[in-house]
User: Fold this.
Amino acid sequence: MEIGDGLRYSSRMRVFRRFATLCLMGWWIGGLTLYTTAVLRYAHQVIGNHTRVGFVTQRVTTELNWIGAAALALMLWNGLASWRSAARPIRWGLAVSWGVAAIAHAALFLLHAHLDAMLDFQARQVRDGMPFHGPHEAYEALVGVEWGAGLVYLLAALAGWRREDSTGAAAR
Assistant:
């Protein structure tokens, strides 16, 4: 392989990394945004019963959690790949926003399992005596935290890519 081939490969991989990161983050963050701003509201209007809506949203949030896990993996790859050429504030933005999103996401997985254990899927109701409301509100707050951290990460990634391209570090 000649040096030129390596540079083309590096450039192609950089484009692929960025494209994949944007696509998966768009699916994840866009999905969270659509879900919280429209789907929940319309589901309550159409179905009218919070418990029944909850059994639909339980499945949707399971899917969103897995999409988020994949997005976080790509975000980590991107952050590590961009690290050398990134200025200190961009590094901080990438690292802190990814860390906050990853911690919130890990907590969401645990909390989702806890909430699932409170549900009687056969009867389509919350098990008697289970304090569902408080943990559910915590879940919603954590979604907001990871959503915000994801947007901060995206801003830092765009700034990092710009710097990466302008310094010529991407061609290494």
About this structure: Helices lie at 3-47, 50-82, 88-117, 133-167.
